[in-house]
Write a structure and sequence with these properties.
Purple Acid Phosphatase, chain A, domain 2, 39% helix, single chain, 2 domains, 18% strand, six-stranded mixed beta sheet, alpha/beta, 305 residues
Length: 305
């Protein structure tokens, strides 16, 4: 990211929205490094959808340094809404829910607005949705998604109302890891919203998204831009089918790249696990262990202390 700052400054972009986890821990040295090495060097307004690492250890430090963790602004005929999905463990509740209701109402009814952009760190829209089973299967940190949230019951109906007359695009992060799944693009027929995932994991696949908005035609075009020079596909190619098939292809390539000194023992173990005699042996050993333990207990009982 820091190596690409000159590129960011010359793209003609109007602003940058980050999707959280910009540093590892909420301590002054980490926050200061982010500001001096990136934010202050980018000649564009920078906004952030706060992630768990940004507030890890001190939410107060983040808020004192960068301001509120959920807010909105209007630009180019679109309403930008930045949410804090760490505030209620993935749910949108309390004052943030009241805030989001007002935003959704404005987006749906204000004729001056052409659409709604929502930004969050967590992929909260994938929780509890059968359509996004392949997304939830590869959550970066499953523990942070282990509890159900209120997206499907409370937030989705608000998006559905906006999407009846306006465009709705929801951007999420939390895919910044060495896992092969770093981008997603899906138009959800249930809510009418388009969901996008983008993450950077220090890999050759790392890319950012350039969002090109035609304010006259109210059209939106999303273009992945590689940070490493590696060829990157169209955003539409990173669909749900990509998420279904990509992990299997990835592990197949990893397996094929292993040396024979590792592959041969793995194959022998695999053959053993598939053979009936192995499981018969396991069953016999288990039964023998149970019988032995009962005989031992019986002997101890008869013999006394």
């Amino acid at each position: 990211m820091t190596a690409a700052i000159d590129r960011f400054n010359t793209t003609g972009a109007d602003l940058i929205v980050l999707l959280g986890d910009n540093y590892y821990r909420a301590v002054p040295s980490h926050a200061r490094a982010f500001v001096t090495q990136f934010a202050d060097r980018v000649a564009l307004p920078v906004f952030n959808a706060v992630g768990n690492h940004d507030i890890m250890g001190s939410r107060a430090l983040y808020e004192d340094t960068f301001g509120p963790t959920f807010f909105d602004f209007r630009y180019g005929g679109y309403l930008f809404v930045i949410l804090d999905t760490e505030l209620s463990d993935g749910s949108i509740r309390g004052s943030q829910l009241r805030f989001f209701r007002r935003c959704a109402e404005s987006a749906a009814t204000d004729p001056r607005l052409r659409g709604l952009f929502v930004f969050s760190h967590r992929q909260v829209w994938a929780v509890g949705s059968q359509r996004y089973d392949d997304v939830s299967r590869y959550f970066n940190n499953p523990a942070s998604y282990s509890r159900p949230n209120n997206f499907q019951d409370v937030v989705a109906p608000l998006l559905r109302r906006v999407a009846q007359s306006k465009s709705v695009v929801w951007f999420s992060g939390d895919s910044g890891c060495r896992w092969p799944l770093h981008l997603l693009y899906d138009q959800d027929p249930e809510t009418g919203a388009t969901y996008v995932i983008s993450g950077i994991g220090d890999t050759a696949r790392d890319a950012v998204l350039q969002v090109v908005v035609n304010t006259v035609q109210a059209s939106i075009r999303i273009v992945p831009v590689s940070l490493t020079g590696q060829e990157v596909g169209s955003i539409e190619s990173y669909d749900l089918e990509y998420w279904r098939t990509r992990p299997r292809e990835y592990w197949k390539r990893c397996y094929a790249a292993l040396p024979d000194t590792i592959l041969k023992p793995m194959r022998e173990v695999y053959r053993a696990l598939r053979h009936a005699y192995f499981w018969v042996g396991c069953g016999c050993a288990g039964l023998a262990m149970v019988v032995w333990r009962r005989m031992r207990r019986s002997g101890q009982t008869e013999g006394g202390p």
